[in-house]
Amino acid sequence: MTIDRRNKSVWKRLVRYFVAGAFTVLPLVLTVVAFSWGIGFLSDLVGPDTFLGQRLSTVGLRFATNPIVAYALGWLSLAVVVFVVGFLVESGLRGFIRRVIDAVLRRVPLVGKVYETSQQLVNMLDSGGDDKLKGMSVVYCNFGDRGGVGVLALLPKQDIIKINGSDFYVVLVPQSPVPIGGGLLFMPVESVQQVDMSVDKLMSVYVSMGVVAPDDIPERAPQHPDDKMGDHSTEA
Known about the structure:
Layout: H1 2-46, H2 51-60, H3 67-105, H4 109-125, H5 129-134, E1 137-142, E2 150-155, E3 160-163, E4 166-174, E5 182-188, E6 192-194, H6 199-207, E7 233-235
Parallel strand pairs: 3-7
Antiparallel strand pairs: 1-2, 1-6, 3-4, 4-5
C-alpha cells in the first residue's frame, strides 16, 4: 500500500511538472505558430513560384544563375527602387508622384477601383492613421436570435447601408491567429451590438486563439431607443 501511494505521488508530481512546463512554453509555441502562418501566407503571395516572385527572379537572373540567389537579388532590386522612390518623396515630389500614378491607374476601369481602395488602406497606416483606427469600434454580431451564436468583430464606420430597403452595417471579422485579414460581412443593424472593448484587446483575443478571451464585457448603453449606433445613412 505504501509503494502504491508513493508511485501515485511520483506520477502526480511528474504530471504537475509537465503541465507547468507546457504552460510556460505555450506562449512561445503560439508565437511560432503565428509567425509560421504569416510566413506561409507571404510565401503564397510573393514566393518564388508566384507571379510576382517569378518576375523578381527574372530580374535577378540577369546577375546570377542560381534560382534562389536570383530571387534574392530580385527583392534587393525592388528594395533599391523603393528606397529611391522614398528619397524622391522626401525631397518634395510626393504630390507629383502620386498625381502621376493616380492619373494612370484611375483611368483603368477595374484597376482604378482596386487602386483607390488600396490607397485608402495604406493612408490609414500612414500619418493620421492612428486617428482612423481609433475611430473604429468593437461590436458583437448575433447570428439568429439574441443570446445565440455570435462573434466579436470590428466596425470600421457607423454608416448604415441600405440594401433592398433593409439597414445593414459593414463589419470585419478578423481571422485567427493572425488577424490581418478576415471576412467582410453585411450584418442587419438589429444584430449588431456595440461593446466596451478596445481594438487592441480584440486583436489579442484573435491572436491568442481565444486564450485571452475576456471574462466579462461591460454593457454599453444604447445611443438610441432602437439600439442603433448611428444615424448616418448611405444609399447603396
